[in-house]
Design goal:
Strand order of the largest sheet: 1-3-2
Structural class: mainly alpha
Largest sheet: 3 strands, mixed
Number of helices: 9
Shape: globular
Helix content: 40-55%
Strand content: 5-15%
Oligomer: single chain
Radius of gyration: 17 Å
Length: 226
């Protein structure tokens, strides 16, 4: 895996995205950041009241071509939470996706139940996907797109098979084909296949279709998650 980072001006205007896609990303992220700015202030205040620590959670992720960048999210966990719980869980999902036993290979990517690291307010932020809003900054900077594969964590990528690397042929996104096609009801292998399919079929029409379906997918997650 290539270890590289984004130059601040490398992808701001066009990068590896077509003109139509980068235009949507620039306009969409800028408008949404302006519209959600009051929400940013409210959430930031609530996070500070809920637990001590920073408002934003910063985590290194792997994006286009294996380049690394710092992804932004609203913090939903206690400050300094141990990431080994999530690491072990992800590794097991990837390992099971390669198992010959169909019951293991088709294991859905459900989130860890009763995760003690998550604050009560953090659970609401996750269910509503509000914790993802700071990634609009990543989109504006050109490190992500509004639509694309979920950007994985480096320790997740270390366990990838060769065919999984097809996810890095395109900019990662805030939403994507996986998110509007079942998300946590799907297995890790199914998620990767959808991401690769999106990379091969990418078009303005498909992006607009995914963006239109995203609000409904978020509502379904909010009312059906535990």
């Amino acid at each position: 895996m290539v270890r590289a980072t984004f130059h601040p001006f490398e992808t701001f205007f066009l990068g590896a995205a077509p003109l139509w896609k980068r235009s949507i990303d620039l306009i969409g992220s800028a408008v949404l950041l302006i519209l959600t700015f009051p929400l940013f202030l409210i959430v930031a205040a609530a996070i500070k009241l809920a637990s001590p620590g920073p408002v934003f959670f910063r985590q290194e992720r792997v994006g286009l071509g294996g380049r690394r960048f710092v992804l932004l999210k609203f913090r939903t966990m206690e400050n300094g939470a141990d990431e080994n719980i999530h690491k072990d869980y992800l590794v097991s999902l990837i390992r099971d996706s390669s198992a010959r036993d169909r019951n293991h290979a088709n294991k859905p990517m459900v989130k860890i139940e009763d995760d003690p690291r998550i604050t009560p307010f953090g659970r609401f932020l996750r269910k509503s996907c509000i914790d993802e809003l700071p990634q609009l900054i990543n989109v504006l900077r050109g490190e992500m797109s509004l639509v694309g594969p979920r950007p994985p964590i480096p320790y997740e990528v270390e366990k990838y098979s060769l065919w999984h690397s097809g996810r890095f042929d395109i900019l990662p996104g805030m939403t994507g084909l996986w998110q509007v096609s079942g998300k946590n009801a799907l297995s890790f292998a199914e998620m990767v296949r959808l991401d690769i399919a999106y990379a091969n079929l990418r078009s303005l029409r498909l992006d607009l279709k995914i963006l239109a379906k995203t609000p409904w997918a978020v509502l379904c997650q909010f009312f059906h998650s535990n």
